[in-house]
């Protein structure tokens, strides 16, 4: 196994090469074995088999694929549906690998079954069918796995299926299932279980398994997993068991649903047994251990039946040819295994390899014996290792290991220790069996490949394979047709009682069938070798490979072959290879046998034998013959080489002679060329002198032109610079004039503003005093308002008492009316009954009398009701009068409230004005504080003589702070007054709204009373409408009750509101008194502040003159700053001009560099052309020797070329001179650039000095401007001005 793809070794060309070739003529290859078996089958008409063996990971499966490819190549492309039989067999591999492969210690995809592929051929040698036979499936792996191995792939693929399938089969993580979590390895690197699941489903589709059958297959696989999670516990009775918990119950029910069988029957089949006795069938229970064994046997039986069904279905899809009598079988089976821990599986696998090794030994020995007898040579018996004793140790009955194991499994109390003791006692004297020293359960068997130590800990569990009749009947009765097909009904003799079998016995029977199949065919062997254990290419482990060769029996086969005559050659092949050793013997016309005999005698070999068709040589004799053959060939090669060297030397001599003749002719031609060149140089000198004189004249002329142009440019730049300076001066003067005019106008504006502010302050003080007087008058009017409010409250109380009396009267009237109405209704009802009785008895007279009496009574009642209604009318009139009185009182109260609102609004306006005045005074005070602070700083810096004024300022600041505190108190009082006024206004608006609502409701009540009066007047005329009028009266009375209740509520609300208004008015009066006091105090503080401000103005008058002087100095400084700015702008412009000139110089230098590069490129081209011309001249000279007739034409061409060369040389000279001139100009420009850099540095120094002077002037201006802007303290106005990068603090109104 190279562990990589090698397509060059297995392509069609390789197949063509090995097709029909004899075995041994070409390199060893899989195709050579397949070709031999195919030709042997066609020639002899006997079936052949190819046994592919090797350990896990050695490449057996890939070798099997290559064999089938080559056999399909030889047998044609006869397939169904466009697919060959070989393709159909390969397409079935994913399905068989999913259900029959698992991860082992040495291979991630190890086949755990033997596969025998039969390729069937017709008479013409075409493939007509195929079949796959499987042997020795490792059934115990379903229930028991050891770490780090895995169970079969299909379980993990199904657990990684899409979510729909997982929900359908009620699966989960693989680690949650008992059959999968016995090993720590759940996932394998390089294998994506989800993708492999989809690939397996696709392979099933390709094979022809329908969707329904696929669903049934994976239901059975999921059921096996759920069966493994069923646990058992001890029952109440002895030797009984029950389902352990709810989780086990869930898995039991799920397994029953997936298998579509009865869950109760499934439970009984696991924990109960039926025993047939002469008396009848007896049902017994089993313990938890027996139930677990029964469960595992059930799972193994299901899985093995499923695997057999898959193989049969694949064979059916591939198709077989029953008429074929020729086949080639390819056996792919696991090789010899020896791990650190070897269990029951390794014993079965190694037993199989022992069987195959015996078959191999017998076949090799038989082939050797047949060939020796066929060739009629003398030979003796060859000893080889016979492993029959090992086979007897394992399979012999009744004393073999398998028989003892089956016997132990029949007894329920047997353990692995008792089994080991039996084996120790039975085979203690056997040479192939040994007991390890430090173990009580292990034993060692000496196989042909080496000693293997087996651990018997799980032998009994893995060997048990119960075939229970109850299980058979349960699954045969399944509702799923697929499951019932897997378990067809058993024969009658098997259904009567439960039988148990072992895996080892079944394994031995299948192995016996396989050996019978192999014995009926002609075998061929391929041994696959794994080069390394890390499964990577280009790594070869010698010890590992030798161990595999020893285990596979290859070394033993080589020893057997070497013991006789390992080298065999046909007479023809031998003579074809070694005839050069005795060529004189071949001239004799003898047969091939005698010729071979003479050749060998001449060489002097001993121990060989001559057969009928072959020469048989001992080991090492072939190498001796090859050595002599190579020696003869070497001597012949030396003779050939000597002849070849003489021929080569002759050829070289002729070449040298021809070259010397050519060289002489070339030298003569070269001398003639030199003479011609001397004459050309004389002519060229004259041209060069002429061109040099012209060049010098041109250079002087160009220098004069350049100097004139430079003078002109200098004069023009001077004129332009002067004009530019004059324009800058005009612009600067205009700018200074505009600044001066702006300063003058600003001073006049400040004076006007200061006067306006003083006038405004005086006028605002006067207005504030007037408003204060008005507030005092308003405070006096509030007392009159209190008296009016008290009178209104008394009036409202009287009205409320009257309303309560009227309501009591109304309630009494309503009660009396209700009683009368009820009486009238009862009387009417009695009258109706009487009328009906009178009509029935037909007593007209009595009826008339009764009617007249009833009418008289009704008229009396109506008259009484009319009198009551008139009394109600009188009461309503009195109520209307009282309502009118209340309306008038309410109107008067509204007018008074409106007057109060007006006064409150006037007071609000006065408060607002006072707030404005207070704010303005606060601002003036703040400005005064800031200005005083600035004065303090200036006076401290100026001199210590102003200490007295500083103390005054401090006292003034203390007074201002006191005034500020008083102002804040005033503001708080004013705000409280505003809040109270706002509450009063809201309460008044609420009273207005409620009063309007009460007036509207009174009007509605009057309208309703008038309607009642109208209805009462009409009652005398229409007695028939008495009942309707009574009802209306009742309804209207109820409405009047509702109105009276609403009026009560409104009156109570008005009383509450009046009380609240009185309280608020009292609070307002108190606030007004406090405000008057604060205003008086505020007026005193304002007078004091005005006096202090007047004193400050007097103190500042003296400083104004000093400020005027400072302003003049400031104007002079501004003029100087403007001049400095102009100088800076001029320097900046010069710097920009210098930068432009530098850029131009850089551009000119870049242009010159590009021109130089172009000229160099042209020079290189000229040189190449010159070299080409020289080569052409040489060619022309050679042609001149051959053709004398074309000398004239060649001379003309030479002259032209010389002229071109002369012109190019002159151009080169001119270019060199130009390069020299450009280099001079560059040097001059570099000097100019250096001078410009110096000028720039001087300009930078001047700019630095200007910056220092500007900074000094800025500091001077700061000090001057601080003094100037103190003049605006009176107006309280400041501005932010920036000049020459300096920031001046300002104060805003």
UniProtKB/TrEMBL annotation:
GO terms for MF: actin filament binding; ATP binding; calmodulin binding; microfilament motor activity
GO BP term, example: actin filament organization
InterPro entries: IQ_motif_EF-hand-BS, Kinesin_motor_dom_sf, Myosin_head_motor_dom-like, MYSc_Myo11, P-loop_NTPase
Domain Myosin motor: 1-630
Presence of the UniProt keyword Transmembrane helix in the record: yes
Pfam family, one: Myosin_head
Sequence segments annotated as region (Actin-binding): 511-533
The UniProt record lists the keyword Membrane: yes
Keywords recorded for this protein, A-Z: Actin-binding, ATP-binding, Calmodulin-binding, Coiled coil, Membrane, Motor protein, Myosin, Nucleotide-binding, Repeat, Transmembrane, Transmembrane helix
Name this polypeptide is given: Myosin motor domain-containing protein
GO annotation, cellular component aspect: cytoplasm; membrane; myosin complex
Residues given in the record as ATP binding sites: 54-61
Biological source species: Aegilops tauschii subsp. strangulata
PANTHER family linked to this entry: MYOSIN, MYOSIN FAMILY PROTEIN WITH DIL DOMAIN
Coiled coil: 775-1022, 1051-1253
Regions crossing the membrane: 1272-1292
CDD domains: MYSc_Myo11
Family per similarity comment: Belongs to the TRAFAC class myosin-kinesin ATPase superfamily. Myosin family. Plant myosin class XI subfamily.
